[in-house]
Amino acid sequence: MPTISDFAAKFKGGVRPNLFRVTINSPSAIFTDLDFLCKAATIPDSTIGKVEVPYRGRKLQVPGDRVFSDWEITVLNDVDWQNRSQMEAWLGKIQAHSANYSDYGSNDISYYGMASVSQLDRQNNIIRTYRMEVLPTTVAAITLDADVNDSVEEFTCTFAVNYYTIDSQGGDGSQGGSGIDISVGGNIKIGPVQVGFNF
Protein backbone atom coordinates (compact mmCIF):
# COMPACT_ATOMS: atom_id res chain seq x y z
CA MET A 1 0.00 0.00 0.00
CA PRO A 2 1.49 3.39 -0.97
CA THR A 3 2.60 5.63 1.89
CA ILE A 4 2.81 9.43 2.23
CA SER A 5 6.56 9.10 1.60
CA ASP A 6 5.85 7.32 -1.68
CA PHE A 7 3.47 10.14 -2.65
CA ALA A 8 6.06 12.81 -1.75
CA ALA A 9 8.67 11.05 -3.88
CA LYS A 10 6.34 11.06 -6.89
CA PHE A 11 4.87 14.53 -6.30
CA LYS A 12 8.26 16.28 -5.85
CA GLY A 13 6.66 19.48 -4.58
CA GLY A 14 4.54 20.22 -7.64
CA VAL A 15 4.75 23.20 -10.00
CA ARG A 16 3.93 26.73 -8.81
CA PRO A 17 1.70 28.99 -10.96
CA ASN A 18 3.50 32.13 -9.77
CA LEU A 19 6.87 31.02 -11.17
CA PHE A 20 6.83 31.97 -14.84
CA ARG A 21 8.55 34.08 -17.47
CA VAL A 22 7.06 35.66 -20.59
CA THR A 23 8.91 37.06 -23.61
CA ILE A 24 7.40 39.01 -26.51
CA ASN A 25 9.41 39.95 -29.59
CA SER A 26 7.39 42.75 -31.15
CA PRO A 27 8.02 44.08 -34.68
CA SER A 28 7.59 47.70 -33.66
CA ALA A 29 7.09 48.43 -29.94
CA ILE A 30 9.68 49.05 -27.22
CA PHE A 31 8.57 47.88 -23.79
CA THR A 32 10.17 48.73 -20.43
CA ASP A 33 10.46 46.85 -17.12
CA LEU A 34 7.87 44.25 -18.06
CA ASP A 35 10.00 41.66 -16.31
CA PHE A 36 8.63 43.20 -13.12
CA LEU A 37 5.21 44.44 -14.27
CA CYS A 38 3.64 41.35 -15.84
CA LYS A 39 1.19 40.11 -13.21
CA ALA A 40 -0.33 37.09 -14.96
CA ALA A 41 -0.18 34.99 -18.11
CA THR A 42 -1.48 31.63 -19.30
CA ILE A 43 -0.06 28.46 -20.77
CA PRO A 44 -1.67 28.43 -24.24
CA ASP A 45 -4.22 25.85 -25.20
CA SER A 46 -5.40 24.33 -28.45
CA THR A 47 -8.20 22.05 -29.53
CA ILE A 48 -8.41 19.45 -32.28
CA GLY A 49 -11.86 19.48 -33.78
CA LYS A 50 -13.77 16.39 -34.77
CA VAL A 51 -15.68 15.39 -37.86
CA GLU A 52 -18.58 13.03 -37.27
CA VAL A 53 -19.08 10.67 -40.21
CA PRO A 54 -22.39 8.77 -39.98
CA TYR A 55 -22.44 5.10 -40.95
CA ARG A 56 -25.48 2.84 -40.48
CA GLY A 57 -26.76 4.54 -37.38
CA ARG A 58 -23.33 5.06 -35.85
CA LYS A 59 -20.94 8.02 -35.97
CA LEU A 60 -17.26 7.60 -36.70
CA GLN A 61 -15.14 10.26 -35.00
CA VAL A 62 -12.50 11.58 -37.41
CA PRO A 63 -9.83 14.11 -36.31
CA GLY A 64 -10.47 17.62 -37.62
CA ASP A 65 -8.37 20.78 -37.69
CA ARG A 66 -6.45 22.28 -34.77
CA VAL A 67 -7.74 25.58 -33.34
CA PHE A 68 -5.61 27.83 -31.12
CA SER A 69 -7.35 29.87 -28.43
CA ASP A 70 -6.44 33.49 -27.76
CA TRP A 71 -3.58 34.13 -25.34
CA GLU A 72 -3.85 36.77 -22.61
CA ILE A 73 -1.49 38.56 -20.25
CA THR A 74 -2.18 41.00 -17.40
CA VAL A 75 0.20 43.93 -16.93
CA LEU A 76 0.50 46.39 -14.04
CA ASN A 77 0.34 49.96 -15.37
CA ASP A 78 3.61 51.84 -14.94
CA VAL A 79 3.61 55.52 -13.92
CA ASP A 80 4.82 56.65 -17.37
CA TRP A 81 2.25 54.48 -19.20
CA GLN A 82 5.10 53.20 -21.38
CA ASN A 83 3.92 49.61 -21.74
CA ARG A 84 0.29 50.41 -22.52
CA SER A 85 1.38 53.15 -24.94
CA GLN A 86 3.67 50.76 -26.81
CA MET A 87 0.99 48.07 -27.01
CA GLU A 88 -1.45 50.66 -28.39
CA ALA A 89 1.21 51.79 -30.86
CA TRP A 90 1.60 48.20 -32.10
CA LEU A 91 -2.16 47.98 -32.63
CA GLY A 92 -2.11 51.42 -34.26
CA LYS A 93 0.43 50.27 -36.83
CA ILE A 94 -1.80 47.33 -37.73
CA GLN A 95 -4.76 49.67 -38.13
CA ALA A 96 -4.74 53.36 -37.20
CA HIS A 97 -6.92 54.50 -34.31
CA SER A 98 -8.20 57.55 -36.18
CA ALA A 99 -8.75 56.21 -39.71
CA ASN A 100 -9.07 53.00 -41.68
CA TYR A 101 -5.49 52.53 -42.85
CA SER A 102 -2.47 50.43 -41.90
CA ASP A 103 1.28 50.97 -41.84
CA TYR A 104 1.67 47.49 -43.33
CA GLY A 105 1.15 46.58 -46.98
CA SER A 106 -1.21 43.86 -48.19
CA ASN A 107 1.67 41.38 -48.58
CA ASP A 108 3.45 42.44 -45.38
CA ILE A 109 3.17 40.03 -42.44
CA SER A 110 5.65 41.85 -40.20
CA TYR A 111 2.83 42.82 -37.81
CA TYR A 112 3.17 39.37 -36.20
CA GLY A 113 5.31 39.01 -33.10
CA MET A 114 6.82 36.00 -31.37
CA ALA A 115 5.93 35.33 -27.74
CA SER A 116 6.94 32.67 -25.27
CA VAL A 117 5.80 31.69 -21.81
CA SER A 118 8.04 29.54 -19.63
CA GLN A 119 7.25 27.60 -16.49
CA LEU A 120 10.01 27.88 -13.89
CA ASP A 121 10.91 25.52 -11.08
CA ARG A 122 11.63 26.64 -7.52
CA GLN A 123 15.31 27.13 -8.39
CA ASN A 124 14.31 29.59 -11.17
CA ASN A 125 15.22 27.15 -13.95
CA ILE A 126 13.03 26.81 -17.03
CA ILE A 127 11.06 23.55 -17.06
CA ARG A 128 8.99 24.05 -20.22
CA THR A 129 8.57 26.82 -22.80
CA TYR A 130 5.73 27.48 -25.23
CA ARG A 131 6.68 29.66 -28.23
CA MET A 132 3.87 31.33 -30.18
CA GLU A 133 3.42 33.47 -33.28
CA VAL A 134 0.99 36.15 -32.09
CA LEU A 135 -1.03 39.11 -33.28
CA PRO A 136 -2.34 41.63 -30.70
CA THR A 137 -6.10 42.08 -30.87
CA THR A 138 -7.15 43.82 -27.64
CA VAL A 139 -5.74 46.22 -25.08
CA ALA A 140 -8.47 46.14 -22.45
CA ALA A 141 -10.00 49.12 -20.68
CA ILE A 142 -8.72 50.40 -17.34
CA THR A 143 -11.52 51.17 -14.90
CA LEU A 144 -11.16 54.45 -13.01
CA ASP A 145 -13.09 54.64 -9.75
CA ALA A 146 -12.80 57.15 -6.90
CA ASP A 147 -14.03 54.49 -4.45
CA VAL A 148 -11.09 52.15 -5.12
CA ASN A 149 -8.23 52.38 -2.62
CA ASP A 150 -5.02 50.44 -2.05
CA SER A 151 -4.76 49.00 -5.54
CA VAL A 152 -2.64 49.43 -8.65
CA GLU A 153 -4.04 49.85 -12.15
CA GLU A 154 -3.70 46.86 -14.41
CA PHE A 155 -4.84 45.96 -17.89
CA THR A 156 -5.04 42.86 -20.03
CA CYS A 157 -3.68 42.33 -23.53
CA THR A 158 -5.13 39.65 -25.79
CA PHE A 159 -3.27 38.03 -28.67
CA ALA A 160 -4.49 35.79 -31.48
CA VAL A 161 -2.24 32.74 -31.87
CA ASN A 162 -1.27 31.25 -35.24
CA TYR A 163 0.68 28.31 -33.81
CA TYR A 164 2.93 27.29 -30.94
CA THR A 165 5.88 24.98 -30.43
CA ILE A 166 7.00 23.40 -27.16
CA ASP A 167 10.46 23.19 -25.60
CA SER A 168 10.63 20.90 -22.58
CA GLN A 169 13.24 20.34 -19.88
CA GLY A 170 15.32 23.47 -20.03
CA GLY A 171 13.57 25.68 -22.60
CA ASP A 172 16.07 28.16 -24.00
CA GLY A 173 18.59 27.44 -21.25
CA SER A 174 18.28 30.86 -19.67
CA GLN A 175 17.04 31.76 -16.23
CA GLY A 176 14.60 34.48 -15.33
CA GLY A 177 12.04 35.68 -12.85
CA SER A 178 8.32 36.11 -13.03
CA GLY A 179 7.28 38.58 -15.72
CA ILE A 180 8.17 39.61 -19.25
CA ASP A 181 11.30 40.33 -21.24
CA ILE A 182 10.67 42.26 -24.44
CA SER A 183 13.13 42.52 -27.33
CA VAL A 184 12.77 44.19 -30.70
CA GLY A 185 15.50 43.68 -33.27
CA GLY A 186 18.87 43.83 -31.49
CA ASN A 187 18.93 43.36 -27.74
CA ILE A 188 20.31 45.55 -25.01
CA LYS A 189 20.82 43.82 -21.68
CA ILE A 190 19.76 46.02 -18.77
CA GLY A 191 19.91 44.00 -15.56
CA PRO A 192 17.36 41.20 -15.77
CA VAL A 193 15.40 42.96 -18.53
CA GLN A 194 16.15 42.70 -22.24
CA VAL A 195 15.07 45.70 -24.27
CA GLY A 196 15.81 46.14 -27.96
CA PHE A 197 14.97 48.46 -30.78
CA ASN A 198 15.19 49.07 -34.51
CA PHE A 199 15.68 52.40 -36.26
Topology:
Layout: H1 4-11, E1 20-25, H2 34-37, E2 38-40, E3 46-55, E4 58-68, E5 71-76, H3 82-94, E6 113-120, E7 126-139, E8 154-168, E9 180-183, E10 186-190, E11 193-197
Parallel strand pairs: 1-9
Antiparallel strand pairs: 1-6, 2-5, 3-4, 5-8, 6-7, 7-8, 10-11
Tell me what the structure shows.
- This protein is mostly beta strands and 199 residues long.
- The chain has one domain: Roll (Pnp Oxidase, Chain A).
- 13% of the residues lie in helices and 44% in strands.
- The chain has 3 helices and 11 strands; from the N terminus they run H-E-H-E-E-E-E-H-E-E-E-E-E-E.
- A 7-stranded mixed sheet has the order 2-5-8-7-6-1-9. Strands 3-4 form a two-stranded antiparallel sheet. Strands 10-11 form a two-stranded antiparallel ribbon.
- Strand 6 and strand 7 form a beta hairpin.
- The longest helix is centred in the middle third of the chain and has 13 residues.
- The radius of gyration is 21 Å and the shape is extended.
Looking at how many chains there are and whether they match, the oligomeric state comes to single chain
Secondary-structure element sequence? HEHEEEEHEEEEEE
- How many structural domains are formed by the residues? 1
- Main β-sheet, spatial strand arrangement: 2-5-8-7-6-1-9
CA gyration radius, whole angstroms: 21 Å
What structural category characterises the helix and strand content? mainly beta
Terminal CA distance reads 66 Å
CATH architecture: Roll
**Number of helical stretches of at least 4 residues:** 3
